[in-house]
Amino acid sequence: MNQEELLQKDKELISEGLKLRFHPITVKEAKGCYITDTNDQRYLDLTAGWAVANVGYGRESIAKVIHDQYVKLSFTTQLSAPSETMIQLADKLVEIVPGNFEKKVWFGHSGSDANDLISKFLPVSTGRNKMISFIGSYHGQTMGASSLSGHSAQAKFEGKGNVVKIPYPNVYRPFSGISDNLTEQTMHFLEEVFATICPAEDTAGVIIEAIQSDGGIVLPPEQFLKELREICDRHGIYLIVDEVKVGMGRTGKWFSFEHTGIIPDAVVLGKSLGAGLPISAVVGRKEILDTVAAGHMFTTSGNPISTSAAIENIRIIKEENLIENADKQGNLFLTGLHKLKEKYECIGDVRGKGLSIGVEIVTDRDSKKPDAIKTAALCYHCYEIGLLIYNVGIYGNVLEITPPLSITTDEVNEALSFLDQAFQDIENGNFQLEKLKEYAGWG
């Protein structure tokens, strides 16, 4: 089938609940940082499939590992008959996740089921029934993970009633309207929450993204996570960091929280861990992960295929210095994007760390009014000229740049050239908005 036929079948057969579409594309193949559609059109990809393909597409060594593992041992349920690859991967994760305390590892399939474990286990582990998370957070789609989330895309669904959500310290859009002393403002807000609706002695844990990803690539003030760690320690509350989207080297370190020097009590991983295969993990304190025997089980968790791919994925990241490349190419991207900001008034803010970068689109810089329509138009028009990019944010107005960590300098410059052209065309009115009817992304 050609692309048009596939899209029609997709419309007929696939649930709308499984769709978040930005372009009329169906994919045939991918290699490195490029995707080819079913009409043989090639695109430079700045999405890495929602930050999944950190090592790029079509890695032959990973394909060989998957093939060899399947031939040797295609499956055993790790719940009852563990295999070597799960233990090997757990050993590597315990090694790279900071923390001088006894750690254990739990495996699942996605960031959602991993954050679900946090939702279930922390209240039981501590004997405290409350959890705190942040407005703008996106922890997943299952009930526990969705309940922890604070994203506008999940606002229509009911959740567990034990979660209190507080403002995330967004310097560009401060919850109080005042950017000064934003860390102090947020800590004061948290203490008020402790004093009223969520007593500290009843609070099991705080879960946070060190960089809010689907919330709009929001970086907190420099000292914020240290202050949050201190307040959690003062009240005997666990601090959990969700690294599902920005972990595994994306920010120029293995994990984004490492830029702040804090040590979480548990770290949640997913997306890029399996280089395209479904696998997630929680790496944390033994007393958390041993809370309930047989308490959060999935038959195919930690399966030999996914764990062997994850082991090879970690090897590639280390041996090809992809963490260092993420830092280098991220700085190049940010420099180029700041130059585009000088050129185009609709760019309200440029921010990021490594290759987790956000470009916030506004109607004008004075009002900072989010412009979700222009953002969707930019995504669609980038596709038309050969670049794939998605939008994120609670207002749907942030272009998200999360390419494979293997991206080269030439490819970064190519991407910046595409973006420059897209901004120029959209600003000049060279785009028909009716194209967005089915492809507005989060909008």
UniProtKB/TrEMBL annotation:
The keyword Protein transport does not apply. It comes from the Bacteria. PROSITE patterns: AA_TRANSFER_CLASS_3. One of its GO terms (molecular function) is transaminase activity. It holds the Pfam family Aminotran_3. InterPro entries: Aminotrans_3, Aminotrans_3_PPA_site, PyrdxlP-dep_Trfase, PyrdxlP-dep_Trfase_major, PyrdxlP-dep_Trfase_small. Belongs to the class-III pyridoxal-phosphate-dependent aminotransferase family. This is Aspartate aminotransferase family protein. It comes from Psychrobacillus mangrovi.
